């Protein structure tokens, strides 16, 4: 089973404290495309006049937490150097869950559509460009899982004179994340009191998988987890550690402008006040 679950649970208390101290800034993303059974791109169904009929999801992301530095041999450009680790918390906060239904199209890869539940019952499935991959996070974290491609990006940005992110200077290597119900992080309307979406499948023979995160629930990754870092070798001064959920805007949400969180850090990183 997933050893991550136990580790993740231990982080909830620390996470709540960290989040309270940090600022969330509004993100920005281009318009999405894709519709059910229609090859031509369509507008975001969660943004039109009929959006009220749908229980659209809204993803958000907490600020980076539990930061620490790892020095790895090999040097920058060769997988080594100074790695700034952080945990992340992908939060589901809409009227309905974020749910993907994926079907295999080649070995270790599936294409995913998005299921959006309707007010009063039923569900509609919208075509997306999202994909799911059977990906190994290493033996220590349980091996391989069916995971979603690109739901989150970890980045380092330069700052403008008002300490807002100006330009991206580094991006972390992690691209595959499970969507699941790990912790219920907010009791809110339509939030189930129990897990609906369990741990991601570890069966390479699966033809289909369903992945999701329920309203009020989070998928959380501890800072020690596989590829949970950005290489900050050679960077000095104040920067923004930025988390962006759905950075390619492959998934339909009721709010596409709240997908970014920011934590200001001074590099080389040390714990405590950052004096930026
Ligand atoms: Ca959102
Ligand atoms: Ca989106």
Describe the structure.
With 276 residues, the protein is mainly beta. It has one domain (3-267). It is 6% helix and 41% strand. It is built from two helices and 17 strands. The strands form three sheets. Strands 1, 5, 6, 7, 8, 11 and 13 form a seven-stranded antiparallel β-sheet that branches. Strands 2, 3, 4, 12, 14 and 15 form a six-stranded antiparallel β-sheet that branches. The chain is globular, with a radius of gyration of 19 Å. The N and C termini lie far apart (42 Å). Residues 5-41 have low confidence and may be disordered. The chain binds calcium ion (2 copies). One calcium ion binds at residues 58-60, 253, 255-256, 258-259. One calcium ion binds next to loops.
List its salient traits.
mainly beta, six-stranded antiparallel β-sheet, binds calcium ion, seven-stranded antiparallel β-sheet, 2 helices, 276 residues, 41% strand
Poorly predicted parts: 5-41
Q: Judging from the principal axes of the Cα atoms, what is the shape?
A: globular
By DSSP, the count of extended strands is 17
**End-to-end C-alpha gap:** 42 Å
Instruction: Give the oligomeric state.
Output: single chain
Radius of gyration: 19 Å
- How much strand content do the residues show? 35-45%
Share of residues in helices: under 10%
Task: Label the structural class.
Answer: mainly beta
Describe the sheet with the most strands: 7 strands, antiparallel
Alpha plus pi helix count: 2
How many domains make up the 3D coordinates?
1
Order of helices and strands: HHEEEEEEEEEEEEEEEEE
The average pLDDT value, as a whole number, equals 88
Bound molecules: calcium ion
């Amino acid at each position: 089973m997933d050893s991550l679950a136990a580790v993740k649970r231990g982080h909830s208390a620390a996470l709540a404290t960290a989040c309270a101290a940090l600022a969330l800034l509004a993100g920005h993303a281009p318009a999405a495309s894709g519709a059910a059974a229609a090859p031509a791109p369509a507008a975001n169904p969660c943004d039109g006049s009929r959006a009220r009929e749908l229980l659209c999801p809204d993803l958000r992301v907490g600020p980076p937490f539990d930061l620490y530095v790892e020095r790895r041999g090999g040097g920058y450009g060769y997988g080594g150097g100074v790695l700034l680790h952080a945990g992340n918390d992908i939060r589901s906060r809409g009227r309905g869950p974020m749910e993907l239904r994926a079907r295999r199209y080649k070995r270790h890869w599936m294409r995913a559509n998005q299921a959006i539940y309707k007010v009063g019952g039923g569900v509609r499935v919208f075509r997306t460009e999202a994909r799911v991959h059977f990906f190994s996070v290493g033996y220590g974290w349980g091996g391989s899982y069916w995971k979603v491609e690109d739901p989150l990006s970890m980045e380092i940005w330069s700052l403008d004179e008002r300490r807002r992110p100006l330009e991206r200077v580094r991006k972390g290597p992690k691209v595959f994340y499970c969507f699941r119900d790990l912790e219920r992080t907010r009791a809110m309307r339509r939030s189930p009191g129990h897990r609906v979406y369990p741990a991601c499948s570890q069966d390479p023979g699966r033809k289909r998988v369903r992945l999701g995160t329920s309203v009020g629930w989070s998928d959380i990754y501890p800072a020690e987890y596989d590829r949970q870092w950005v290489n900050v070798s050679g960077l000095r001064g104040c920067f923004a550690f930025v988390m962006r959920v759905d950075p390619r805007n492959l998934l339909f949400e009721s709010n596409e402008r709240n997908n970014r969180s920011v934590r200001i850090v001074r590099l080389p990183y040390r714990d405590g006040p950052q004096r930026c």
